[in-house]
Each structure stands twice: as C-alpha cells, then as structure tokens.
Amino acid sequence: MNGPNCASCPAAPHAAGSRRDRPGRALEINPLEIAATAFTLVCVVLAVQRSLWQFPFGVVGTGLSFFMFVGGNLYSSAALQVFFLAVQFYGWWYWLKGYKGGRPPIRTTRTRLVAGLCAGALALAIPLGLAFDAWTDAQNPMLDAGIFTLSVVAQFLLDRKRIENWPIWAVINVVSVYVYATQGLWVYAGLYVFFFFNAFWGWWEWRKEMRGYPAGAKGAA
C-alpha cells in the first residue's frame, strides 16, 4: 500500500493557478481531496492487516486521486492511478485465489531482483520526467516520474504479497510528501507522512505473521 496505494482527487487544488514560476500555494482544503484521503487511509491500514477489503477501498481512492493529480498538474502521478486501478483488481483476485487456487502466504523476494527492479524503475523515470517537462506544464516532473515508476514496482510486490514492498513504499512516501506539499495538496502530503510510518508498521506485522509459517512457506522467489 503505499502502500499499497489507493488515491485522492481533483478540481480545487489547482484553482489557485500554480505555475512553474509560482512554486508554493497557500493552504487550500479540497473536500474531494479529503474524501480521497479517507479512502486511501483505510485502504493502506487494511493492507497492513492483510484484509481483502483494502481493494474496494483502493479502487474508490484511486479514482478520486486521478482527478486530484490532473488538477494539480502532476501528470505522472495521475497516470499512476490508471495503473493502480488495474492492479487493484488483479491484487484482489490474487489475494483471494491466485496461489494454487487459494489465498497466498506472505513471501520474500531475492534482494538482487528487487534491486534490479528499482534500478530499472529509476532509469525509466528519467526519460519520462524529461518528456513531461518538455511537453506539458507538469510540476516537479522528475520527482513525480520517480514516484510513478517506483510505485509500479512496490504495488506489484504488494499485489504478489511480497514483504519487500514496504521498504520501497517508505522511500516513495518521503519523496511524495515533498512533491505534494509543494503543490499545495496539504491533506495528501499529511497522509503520506502517515504512510511513511505505516510502511514500518506493515513490515513489522508481515514479518510477525511470517514467523508463524512453516519453513517451506517462506522461501524467496
């Protein structure tokens, strides 16, 4: 989450007209942003608890987030919500019966593979950020692109119930707080402060459950 991500929403955040020559904005609270934040918060907490209910909450939160990020000129984050929407349904299916016809256990992934996926994501973020910088009025295009590509990796690992998703979300959350705060998305930025600490909670809870597994169920893949 991060988490598993779910999402937030549109309109008002950009009504004040932030542009590249106007980096900061006064505090504005968008009711739609608050609603999206609430759904996202529930989604991520449920992910820590390994609950299937995270997915319907995530679908709603993701839809709201798409419009919020478009309104804030954060186009990589907006595009990310389209990906999140698709993988919410995939994760829902996989957590229900994607592992030998039943619910999957929490598993680990080889460190080399996780590092390679993250390196590839960051490499992809460079041309993506340059493209948004050149062809759109995107704000923080490089950092926003990094959030996009790393979130794809973290969300995939979450949907596959791999414990390594949590440290990746922690890194994403730090960057997200800065990017969303500079766009005046204060509620959403505050949410990602919570997500940062939630990532450690998720890691702890998932590790605790794994300790109760028989040895054969913990293998890396």
Secondary-structure element sequence?
HHHHHHH
Number of strands: 0
Give the biggest beta sheet: none
N-C termini distance: 21 Å
Work out the radius of gyration.
17 Å
Put simply, the count of helices is: 7
Structural class by SSE content: mainly alpha
Number of domains: 1
Uncertain stretches of 5 or more adjacent residues: 1-27
Helical content (DSSP H or I, runs of 4+): 55-70%
Proportion of strand residues: under 5%
Mean of residue pLDDT? 82
- Shape descriptor reads globular
If you had to describe this structure to a student in words, what would you say it looks like?
- The chain is globular, with a radius of gyration of 17 Å.
- It is mainly alpha-helical.
- It has seven helices and no strands.
- The relative contact order is 0.18.
- It has one domain (12-22, 29-217).
